[in-house]
Amino acid sequence: MKKLIYSLVALGMVACSGPKYTASFNNVNATVPYYAAKSTEAPAPVNPNELIASTSETPVVLATETALVAAPAVAKAYSEMTKAERKDLRKQLRSEIKSIVKDQKMNKKMGVESAAASKGMDNDLKLAAIFGAVGFVAMLIGGNVFWIIGGIALIIGVVFFVKWLVRQ
Questions:
Q1: What are the sequence ranges of the domains in the chain?
Q2: Distance of alpha carbon 72 from alpha carbon 10, whole angstroms
Q3: Does the predicted model carry a pTM greater than 0.70?
């Protein structure tokens, strides 16, 4: 019996180690036609709000200018503000940041149960896995006593697994 099990394990290991299942890291430039083609013009930056889907292999070039100049415009507007306007803006920003931080703290306090529940497996699922593993190992060892112990352990594991499934 042991020889049969060991030969099946060895056969499985040999079957899964063939070149069909090994990793192949091909050169990106050779497999993707887009990268293989040498383009004479560089593609213009694409505005994410105006993305276009296409089935052709040529890069998409948009005629409109991108909105990359928005950050200097905001800095210019802030520098043009009066002292009172700047103070009011900073006050509004502080209150907004405080409200966001307060909301995050409340979410953390309310999510304690869910975080504790997701940290590990349920107790019944752990017991089902333990009894199942003990049952399989006992049955692999062989002998009349170990077959009985393995069968009982498997039955107990199935009971804990069904108990866990019912609660889900």
A1: 70-117, 121-167
A2: 67
A3: no
